[in-house]
């Protein structure tokens, strides 16, 4: 098979949680450019509508479903609806996430639960649902979890404390390894992307607080851009990565190398 054919996603359906903006939309652009039909979920319908129009302007077919990942009881229903209306899911990108900044001694338990419910519990439940309803019956699939460099290391003490976020992303890192081992023999690969600092709505507060410290600690001396994540996402979603599973790959300008 020609190399360019390995990256071809025509005929594939990709579900991207939290796909209406930020890194999720960047990934949707990359997968859609190579032929995938993208399905976006997010909490706000207006942002989903804007994302769909944005993608349509690039010639990318997108379906959108308003959904709150922390509403656990609705996850199966949403996945069932997507499969019935769009088709079986070939690629799952677990991108939706939440964060909270607070010193550990002052961290509200309710905020801890919110972060865990979206970043770990919701991710698990949507993955379980997609596995049962699409990937296991077809013995194929690509799962891409969006973890973080925060799941690979502790915080620089100059930064705002984010214990719940770091803990949740550490859980995603090892969930990726465990899932990969469990489903490898069934033609399903599971990998994670661990972004460094990208300017998004979620990182706005962090960057306002400590962008200079971040840049000083980043060997490339810059933040991530709209062009820095799509290539890896495409690789992990395509047949070009058929022998790659259980990996947690940092896209961070070198932060985790020092």
From TrEMBL:
Gene3D superfamilies: NAD(P)-binding Rossmann-like Domain. The keyword Oxidoreductase applies. Coiled coil: none annotated. Keywords: NADP, Oxidoreductase. Transmembrane segments: none annotated. InterPro entries: NAD(P)-bd_dom_sf (IPR036291), Sc_DH/Rdtase_CS (IPR020904), SDR_fam (IPR002347), Sec_Metab_Biosynth_SDR (IPR052178). Pfam families: adh_short. PANTHER family: 7-ALPHA-HYDROXYSTEROID DEHYDROGENASE, 7ALPHA-HYDROXYSTEROID DEHYDROGENASE. NCBIfam families: PRK07231.1, PRK08213.1. Belongs to the short-chain dehydrogenases/reductases (SDR) family. This is Gluconate 5-dehydrogenase.
